[in-house]
UniProtKB/TrEMBL annotation:
Organism: Vermiconidia calcicola
Any one GO molecular-function label of the UniProt entry: translation initiation factor activity
Protein name listed in UniProt: Eukaryotic translation initiation factor 3 subunit B
Record-linked InterPro entries: EIF3B (IPR011400), eIF3B_RRM (IPR034363), Nucleotide-bd_a/b_plait_sf (IPR012677), RBD_domain_sf (IPR035979), RRM_dom (IPR000504), TIF_beta_prop-like (IPR013979), WD40/YVTN_repeat-like_dom_sf (IPR015943)
Compartments it resides in: Cytoplasm
């Protein structure tokens, strides 16, 4: 019987074996410890092949596997068992170089179609060992217990309000409340909670959820009583962003994530990352990323730039249909990912040397001559060496460049999409050859016209400081400002300019022409009604000025002859003022506007004012430590375009009905006030009567005379003793008065 290892003595190891190299045997037969299995994955769902077909399948499979990482030793690290009949069992074991690559394979390759008949199922070997051991999984199937049905609150219940009122959220002090807007009357509180959020609140794009931001992560609330719907644990989260259809949410923290294994939905794959993209319905992370810092301006010390100034936000931008999400690596490239798998489109990023910014089209569009609808993405790059600056329009998912535009002497550029993706305006700030002066011109791409022609508007003499398209329209407003005087604290005057297309026959859009200018303003903000037509031009966050101008671009009165060829009729309806104003917000119906002064900017006269769309003040609410007011958005209308046209044609009839309802409500409110006062009077008289009766009883018990009865007796005697007197009153009335000057 051979001795055991513990029975051997030292002299049994004294043979001269120093010159023998065991490295090849050790590498081949060394037993790996359990922690080494983290690099292994098990791939199921493979085709059944024989020995001759095995090599071909391994080569095909290797291409897929290397797309998310690197296989350690190529085909040799793929072990595919063969049975006694010489065919495979439909699964294989694969070893990656690092555990992180193995995790990436399970996330990105699981559920991916290998061909028309086979879909990959990828799992970590350690998970199979963990859950597949004897006793962990029952051999006999046991159907899951179905929880009894319980009614849940409708997430869009506020849309059923019979008066069609809108809601808004208000953050002041340490309280957050949601209220009904009651126009002139005080808002009706729905819910008001202390410490509901730590940083801020935000509505989702359709108003379904209210997000609160905490040190531990983000919470979503909804329903008529605002119960918690979902939680997204992201420590020290500072910024959030919803996708357009509110199916996903992106969170960002300046601190890298530290994951505690087994606690919460975050895994080791999120370790050290700053950004997480979540699926709102499941509450699970789709993918996490390290943040790309923005490049500081030339000559700036990177260490001196605060963390919040470095981050690009939103870090990820979504296509209108939420099929794609993209991020920019400053000066290098754009990476486009397919949702919800979050795999890199075509496995490569779009190289764009020097790229500064990009924007998705806000709607899926169809260009003339193209049979399919597509997602469009626009980006621009600055001048590099002898190469001019360039604006490029790209079609996704083909990544085809459908239009480019070269630009020269460019200092900066901004991309502005029209809401229906019919146009994109590139606002280009150009410098002179001496670089001492700036001017702005507009490059407008007509997306739906053949060849995507570009119209240039260069009638502005000054720099454009703000630009905004009319929602669902084809007009735009811009604000220009002259050069500031060196050494002066006085801001230069601004001009508000309106542009509209010329009238054309047919369904096309005419050339954009300047319609009207309002000079000598201090305005810096443009706030369109979400329904178009009406716009508020304001001066925000400026200590010296706080102007508000309310404009109507389809005024039904007389129109100047000089503007007869344009699709507009501009009227300044009212001018107002709100001292210390920092924010302007429209309600989702375009009926009301709020202006507010936030304590986040200054501490003077904080609160908000409520206005009609034509500038009439309805309510003023000074609020201590006021921070934020957000109107609750509404989802897109379910009415067809024809139904909407019918409503517009009959708007006057509907208006009469609503005016009658408003009058009834106002009269009802006045009647309620009168009834309340009458009730108070009756309570007062009743109390006085009761007190008099108690006092009378006390006098009778004490044997005291009643002073009121004595006073009444004296009055009666006085009236009987006096003779009747005639009182004559003389009233003087001036019939006419004439003033005459005598010289």
């Amino acid at each position: 019987m051979a001795p055991g290892f513990d029975q051997l003595s030292d002299h049994d190891f004294e043979d001269e074996i120093e010159d023998i190299d065991f490295s090849d045997l050790k590498e081949r037969y060394d037993v790996r410890m359990e922690e080494g299995l983290d690099t292994f994955v098990v791939i199921d769902g493979l085709p059944i092949v024989n020995a001759d077909q095995k090599s071909k399948l391994l080569k095909f499979l290797l291409k897929r596997l290397n797309s998310v990482g690197t296989i350690k030793d190529g085909e040799e690290s793929i072990f595919m068992p063969m049975n006694d009949q010489g065919v495979s069992e439909g699964f294989a074991f694969v070893e990656y170089q690092t555990p992180e690559q193995a995790v990436a394979a399970t996330k990105q390759l699981h559920g991916v179609a290998l061909d028309k008949k086979h879909t990959l199922a990828v799992n970590k070997l350690t998970d199979i060992e963990k859950y597949g051991r004897e006793g962990r999984i029952d051999e006999q199937y046991v159907p899951p217990e179905i929880e009894p049905f319980s009614d849940r609150e409708h997430l869009r219940s506020w849309l059923f309000d019979p008066a069609a009122r809108d809601q808004f959220a208000m953050f002041r002090g340490d309280k957050v409340g949601v209220f009904w807007n009651n126009k002139r009357e005080p808002p009706e509180m729905i819910v008001d909670r202390t410490h509901w959020t730590q940083l801020f609140v935000s509505w989702s794009p359709y108003g379904t959820y209210l997000a609160s931001v905490h040190q531990q992560g983000v919470q979503l609330w909804g329903g008529s009583s605002f119960k918690r719907i979902k939680q997204f644990p992201h420590p020290f989260v500072s910024l959030i962003d919803f996708s357009p259809g509110e199916n996903y949410i992106t969170t960002w923290s300046h601190q890298p994530i530290v994951v505690e294994e087994g606690k919460g939905p975050l895994t080791l794959d999120e370790e050290g990352k700053h950004i997480v993209i979540w699926d709102i319905r499941t509450g699970k992370p789709l993918r996490s990323f390290v943040a790309h810092d923005l490049t500081p301006p030339p000559g700036t010390d990177p260490a001196a730039v605060p963390a919040k100034a470095k981050v690009q936000w939103p870090a990820f931008k979504w296509s209108a249909d939420e099929k794609y999400v993209a991020r920019m690596k400053p000066n290098e490239s754009i990476s486009i990912y397919e949702a919800p798998r979050m795999n890199l489109l075509d496995k490569t990023s779009v190289k764009a040397e020097g790229i500064v910014d990009f924007e998705w089209a806000p709607a899926i569009t169809q260009r003339e001559g193209v049979k399919t609808y597509e997602s469009l993405l626009c980006y621009w790059t600055p001048e590099l060496g002898s190469n001019p600056a360039k604006v490029a329009l790209m079609s996704i998912p083909s990544k085809e460049i459908v239009r480019t535009r070269n630009l020269f002497n460019v200092t900066d550029a901004k991309l502005h999409w029209q809401s229906d993706a019919k146009f994109i305006c590139v606002k280009v700030d150009r410098h002179s050859k001496s670089k001492k002066s700036l001017a702005t011109n507009l490059e407008i791409f007509r997306i739906k016209e053949k060849g995507v022609p570009v119209e240039v508007v260069d009638s502005m003499k000054d720099t454009v400081i703000n630009f905004a398209w009319e929602p669902k329209g084809d007009r735009f407003v811009l604000i220009t400002a002259g050069e500031a005087v060196a050494g002066s604290n006085v801001l230069p005057k601004t001009s508000v300019q309106f542009f509209a297309p010329e009238k054309v026959k047919g369904a096309g859009t005419g050339a954009f022409k300047h319609a009207r200018t309002f000079d000598k303003k201090n305005s810096n903000g443009i706030y369109w009604s979400p329904k178009g037509r009406f716009v508020v031009i304001a001066t925000v966050s400026v200590q010296q000025h706080s102007d508000l101008d309310f404009y109507d671009l389809d005024y039904e009165g007389e129109k100047p002859e000089s503007e007869a060829h344009l699709n507009e009729n501009i009227m300044l309806m009212n001018s107002e003022d709100h001292y210390g104003m920092t924010d302007v917000d429209w309600d989702p119906t375009g009926r009301y506007v709020t202006t507010s002064a936030s304590v986040w900017t200054h501490q003077m006269e904080n609160g908000y004012k409520l206005w009609t769309f034509y500038g009439q003040l309805l309510a003023e609410a000074p609020t201590e430590k006021f921070k934020q007011l957000l109107w609750r958005p509404r989802p897109p209308t379910m009415l067809s375009k024809e139904e909407q046209r019918t409503i517009r044609r009959n708007l006057r009839e509907y208006s009469r009905e609503f005016e009658e309802l408003d009058k009834e409500m106002e009269e009802g409110a006045n009647l309620a006030v009168v009834e309340a006062r009458r009730r108070l009077y009756m309570e007062w008289y009743s109390w006085v009567r009761e007190e008099k009766e108690l006092l009378k009883e006390e006098r009778e018990e004490l044997g005291l005379p009643d002073p009121e009865a004595k006073l009444q007796l004296e009055r009666t005697r006085s009236q009987e003793g006096e003779e009747e007197k005639v009182v004559e009153e003389v009233v003087e009335e001036v019939i006419e008065e004439t003033e005459e000057i005598v010289q």
